[in-house]
Design goal:
By secondary structure, the chain is mainly α. It is built from five helices and three strands, in the order ααβααββα. It has a three-stranded antiparallel beta sheet with strand order 1-3-2. The N and C termini lie far apart (43 Å). 28% of the residues are buried.
């Protein structure tokens, strides 16, 4: 079952190498495309964060924003829908943390099924990225897409 892909963990970024692909929030011609592409991979991006350690909702939001250097941000509503979907599908588990650091927070942890889905999704992303790069002539070392 493929949920979404993870660009960050594969070293690529959504839209990287695409003409006008700018960051999702910069207003460039490719920004809407990049934002849609990023949103399409939210579940896998969240699973990538959870592979490192259990996290609560807003912390995941901050980690994603920081990972892009602030160039991109996934809306909190989109993330919370992803958390519910991941838990429903058995790819993550939710639990309540203690209140020693303020209010109670709901934490998420990746399950074995989530690790498997993450691995499958990243492999699918790498394959897809390679096909698109090949078609657009944007693969490393390519001169196909260059202007002559």
């Amino acid at each position: 079952m493929i949920h979404n892909m993870d660009a960050a963990s594969t070293g690529g970024s959504p839209g990287a190498g695409l003409p006008g692909a700018g960051s999702p929030d910069d207003g460039s011609p490719g920004a809407a495309f990049a934002a849609d592409l990023l949103r399409g991979h939210t579940d896998t991006i969240v699973l990538g964060v959870l592979r490192r350690h259990d996290s609560y909702g807003f912390e995941i939001h901050k980690l994603i924003r920081e990972a892009t250097g602030g160039a991109s941000e996934i809306k909190e509503a989109t993330l919370y829908a992803s958390y519910r979907r991941l838990v429903r599908d058995g790819l993550a588990e939710a639990y309540w943390g203690d209140e020693s650091q303020g209010g109670r927070r709901k934490y998420y942890r990746i399950t074995d099924a989530g690790r498997s889905a993450f691995t499958q999704n990243v492999a699918a992303w790498v394959t897809t990225r390679g096909i698109i790069d090949s078609l657009l002539g944007t693969e490393p070392g390519s001169t196909k897409g260059s202007k002559r």
